[in-house]
Known about the structure:
By secondary structure, the chain is of the alpha+beta class.
Amino acid sequence: MSKHLFITLFALLGISTVTSAQAGLAQEIGIYAGPVTLQSDFGQRNNFDTNAGNSGFGIGVMHFINFSANNNRESFFTEHFKVRSDLSFSRTTLKHFGKWVEYKPDGVFAQQLKNMHASSTILGLGAQIEFSPFMKIHDFENTIGSFSPYGSVGFQVSYYSTKVGSRLGDITLPNVTPGKYLTPSDGRAHGFSSESGVVLSATAAVGVHYKLTTMSDLMFETRFQMYSSDWIDGLNPNKDIYTENKSNDWQVWFNFGYIHYLEF
């Protein structure tokens, strides 16, 4: 699956390179990395320890099509929008946090939760459109030391692989795993699943570009990513019974990046 994603990425980049060169557009490439947190069925909802503990690391490469370059017919679109494609990879480790784990006295249920664990690996390929509302792209490119805030929306196709288990032993046994996660759910034999699959996701981000040199930028970005599946973390208790299991898994990225302008 990952091989197919890489082939698709390079095909898209090759097509966009030829198209952009013929149209007199500019292109940019970049890399980014930073911490990620997976909001999932592991841990207590709206809990700081859950948000901080169920975290990992992400890295990605990006490609921009810049419509303002070599364009003598300035328009609002060409001066405020770019199209960006991404190939990203993240890995997150997951545990239960919150009041049910910390419950005193420390009973069987709390021990079962404490010993559950999972890992989730995600490889994503997608595109987004980036909007810079406060500064024209040409003005930013010509002003070293300037800042240009932006927002973006887009989508990704992602391949995920998740593994879930327990340090107490066989996770299918009732003395190891709480009954909530042993109940059949969404076509699986239990409310947990070690599996791989392909999902869609919607993305939204806010960030800022900093003009480092004539041909390079720095960036910082916070990106939100909502998946079309609730199995990204390996847990999905039956929603008909456990109604607190309300939403699909989603992820937050905190990206620091470097962008280099290409000349054609």
